[in-house]
Every structure is written in structure tokens, then in C-alpha cells.
């Protein structure tokens, strides 16, 4: 058995540290690269800043700045497909630990490295790839864009609401997802059969290594960020006009939504605030407000645009970080101080909720129904 010691130094509190002692399976290669993927780094499975470094005595160590609250995490060998697993090689729930400000040692045993799943395409026939290389002039790049068209789109002349969603790799197709898909297409197909109001869903792939940079308008000294303002401009000034021109859309703000999770929740929230005249319905799932908490608070304090017609659905699980629920509640208070009507804000905090695609997939239907006032 090999032992990896992962040391988290709580800077600012003398000698305070969390030591995670990690026991790995016997089949772990000698040259294995072990990463901590967690709520502390936006769930990046191969973040160089969170790679365990091998020391002279054979342990692996990592130092990170002081944190607060509870962290969720897993270990990977650099890809979600090869994250730690259970005795059967299947995925496991997130691990957690809480920063206490005093030294603590936590033992972790990795039972297996999950065997890569033999994935298959699961996207419904109503999902198409709009473009593999859609221009993003604001960021000087291109991006893969997916589109879900309602079952009756071709047979009708109706105009449909539109929802723009981030991390499209995880929305429709299990083959492209890194830890499960939201099953947005299956949900919408089922809603059609139930006679519920339909919507066009536009999914934007994340930028991989640029994800954290593009999903926050503010910089985090440790993790990056700062390009989110340009990404928001892309959504409002480039992508939305294209969709409205080429598809039958109900293009008003009250018929246009943004939904995202984690960092995608942060950028959905910010974009909706920056462009309330374009995006009037926001689904903010497990938002990473921690990434730029002070900047976000300052932005909300100085905010001057009218949000009277904006509807916001804020979701979080109580098994996520300790601060997530309180961060959301603080944001709600600031929003109400800006004139947004309380009935237009829904907060939902689930005791069972974790920071996972599985949780967000379960909650997507309810958020859609509430945002678009369906019964």
C-alpha cells in the first residue's frame, strides 16, 4: 500500500492545519499523479495548484491558503473518468471536512480507482449541435453550441421561450459528461407529453482550462477569473441575437432564462444582473459566490439597474459548503434592498443536496416550472 499525505495549511492561524492521510490501492502506479478536486477549486480534476507533490520521504503534500467552513472533495488521477471509486470501481459521494482553526489529521482510504464507464450517447433526437466552432469575438475564441428544439417546433409556428445554460457537456449527453448529465432533454421531452409549456434550450460548452476564468467577472488571486464580463457580453450581444434571428423565439426578457451550477451559477447570476433587459429568469444552482465574495457584495451594494421584473431561483444543498446557504441568504437581502420583489425570488435548500450533477439534474424540472410559472 502507498501512503500520500496531503497537507492543508491554514495560513493566518499559527500551526493550524488539516492533514489528510491518503491510503491508495496497490495497483496505483509509482508515477501516479494525484489531485484533489473540490469545492475549493471549482471542481477542476487536474488543477496544478491542487496536485499532491511527492516529497523526499515518499509522501505527497500540498499547501493551500486558510479557508473557512466545510469543503467537499474527491481524489482523482487527473481525470473525472479515473476518480476514486468504491469496492466495485463505481463512483462515490463527495468526501467532506470542516476547517476548525486547530490542527487535525484525517485518514482517507481510496478503495479503488473508478473504471472508466463505457458511455453511450443519450441525447434525445431533439438535441442538435448548432456549431462546433461558434465565434466568441469578445474572448477571441470559439465554442461548441448545442440546441434543444421542442418536439413540436417543426410542426408549429409558435414562438418559444429560450433558456441559455452553461457547461453544456453535462446537459444532454452522458457520453460528453464528466460526472453524469442533467437529462435536460429527457425532462423537456416528458414535459411535452404532459402538455407543459415548452422552451428552446441553448447549451454552451465550457472552455475547459478557461472555465474558471470565463465564469467569473472578478479575479480570485488563487484560481483566476476576470473574463466573465466578456463572457456575459458574448451571451447578450452575440449568442442571443443569433438565436433570436435564426429561431422562432419569444425574445423578451420575461421569456429568456439563464441556468447554471457552481461557477455556472455565479456567471448566470452576474449576467442576469448586468443584462436584466435581456435575461429575466435566472436559475442559480449551488453558486460559487465564495470565488469573489467581496467583489460580488460590492457589486450588489452599488447596483442601480431595475430588477423588478427579474425572477431568480436559488438552489443549494446543505451538504455543500457551510457558507453557501448563508452567502445566498445575504445576496437575497441585498437584492431585496434594490427593489426586487420577494415573491420573485425562490430559495430552496435541501438537506440531502450535494455539489453534483445528479443533484442539479433532479432539481432542474422544479426550477423550470417555477421560473416559467407552470403548474
Automatic annotation (TrEMBL):
<dbReference type="InterPro" id="IPR000801">
    <property type="entry name" value="Esterase-like"/>
</dbReference>
<dbReference type="InterPro" id="IPR050583">
    <property type="entry name" value="Mycobacterial_A85_antigen"/>
</dbReference>
<dbReference type="InterPro" id="IPR013783">
    <property type="entry name" value="Ig-like_fold"/>
</dbReference>
<protein>
    <submittedName>
        <fullName>Alpha/beta hydrolase-fold protein</fullName>
    </submittedName>
</protein>
<dbReference type="InterPro" id="IPR029058">
    <property type="entry name" value="AB_hydrolase_fold"/>
</dbReference>
<keyword id="KW-0378">Hydrolase</keyword>
<keyword id="KW-0732">Signal</keyword>
<dbReference type="GO" id="GO:0016787">
    <property type="term" value="F:hydrolase activity"/>
</dbReference>
<feature type="signal peptide">
    <location>
        <begin position="1"/>
        <end position="16"/>
    </location>
</feature>
<feature type="domain" description="CBM20">
    <location>
        <begin position="10"/>
        <end position="115"/>
    </location>
</feature>
<dbReference type="InterPro" id="IPR014756">
    <property type="entry name" value="Ig_E-set"/>
</dbReference>
<dbReference type="InterPro" id="IPR002044">
    <property type="entry name" value="CBM20"/>
</dbReference>
<dbReference type="Pfam" id="PF00756">
    <property type="entry name" value="Esterase"/>
</dbReference>
